[in-house]
Amino acid sequence: MHTHGPHGTLQDVSYTRGPTGRIDAVHGEGFGAGGQTNDTSHSALKDKWEYTYNGYDELIVADNLIDDALDQTLGYDNLCNHKKPLVEEYYQTGAIDQANMRSVSSVNAHCPSCSAAQGGQLSQYSRQMKRQYGLE
Hints:
The chain has about 140 residues and is α+β, with helices and mostly antiparallel strands.
């Protein structure tokens, strides 16, 4: 990707993609926040990054091969979310599809605050359904 500004090239970057299409590396040159080749307060940047992903295709390491101070390691909470909540499936169909429940394709990532909020909503839903069907 080549980006031009009023004072010349702002960025000349190439991306290396892995077999799944995710970006595995970025290489190129650009300019600091001043964005000008004659801006002495910001020296030209040389970017060379490599990225590492875990088995869920989540970025876990961003490694700047030029400046180790820019390296970043990322972590993720081990929360997941059934795309179709199991409690809803149970009350709507009378059963839970065990194979689908265990399928990786039936879940997605879930942040801790979203998980807590949804847990409260589904608990309320379950209590309401128990009352509706006389299961209390």
